[in-house]
Amino acid sequence: MKIRIIGDDILRQVASEVDEFDDKLVRLGEEMIDIMHDSDGIGLAAPQVGISRRFLVIDISPLEEEAEPMVFVNPVIIESMGECTLEEGCLSVPEVHEDVTRPEEILLKYYTPTGEAKTEKYSGWMSRVLQHEIDHLNGILFVDYLSPIKKKLIASRFSLT
Ligand SMILES: [Zn+2]
Questions:
Q1: Which has the least CB within 10 A, 23, 75, 140, 146?
Q2: In this predicted structure, what is the pLDDT of residue 138?
Q3: How many Å lie between the centroid of ligand 1 and the Cα of residue 126?
Q4: Residue 1 placed within a domain
Q5: Which helix (H) or strand (E) holds 37?
Q6: pTM reported for the whole predicted model
Q7: pLDDT tens-digit series, residues 51-94
Q8: Is the pLDDT of residue 152 over 80?
Q9: What is the pLDDT of residues 37-55, one digit of tens each?
Q10: CATH number reported for the structural domain that contains residue 25 in this entry
């Protein structure tokens, strides 16, 4: 698995739901966590490694020491509250870091790789990274939120048409 870079079509596709919870899915989670750690990322969505499925991994331990790697399957934001601005980056848009405003808190429904349904409230960095990664499942990149001028600069930097 290789990390896909902006300009790759798969990053713009709406990923399909995961419908089989098996050992393969558990293994995919482990592999994606390894790739994320090797790339010094704090989140990685399946489309970023060429798999158009609603599946993502997060490990914010570089930002919050007590955090552990987590896997989210078919995540859905049921409610969002507040607003905050934080600087984001993305393994699929190398070397670009920009402020993005998003809801501060989210109520999330998701499944674990073994098929257990969960509903959880997230705030802070966890909420931020989840929203960024869920965007990937919908073909959205964080640079889509930037001003037209910044978008143009990014398009020329990555030779997008
Ligand atoms: Zn990203």
A1: 23
A2: 98
A3: 14
A4: no
A5: helix 23-38
A6: 0.96
A7: 999 999 999 999 999 999 999 999 999 999 999 999 999 999 99
A8: yes
A9: 999 999 999 999 999 999 9
A10: 3.90.45.10
Q: Where do the H-state alpha helices sit in the chain?
A: 23-38, 124-137, 148-157
Distance 130 CA to ligand 1 centre (A): 10
C-alpha 45 – ligand 1 centre gap (Å)? 7
Residue 115 lies in a domain: yes
- Cα–ligand 1 centroid distance for 24 (angstroms): 23
Between the alpha carbon of residue 31 and those of residues 14, 26, 36, 57, the distances in Å are 22, 9, 9, 10
Burial class (CB in 10 A: 0-12, 13-18, 19+), 16: exposed
Report the domain count for the chain. Answer: 1
User: At 33, phi and psi to the nearest 5?
Assistant: -65, -40
Positions marked catalytic: 133
Tell the residue number behind the tokens 């609603």, with chain if given. Answer: 54
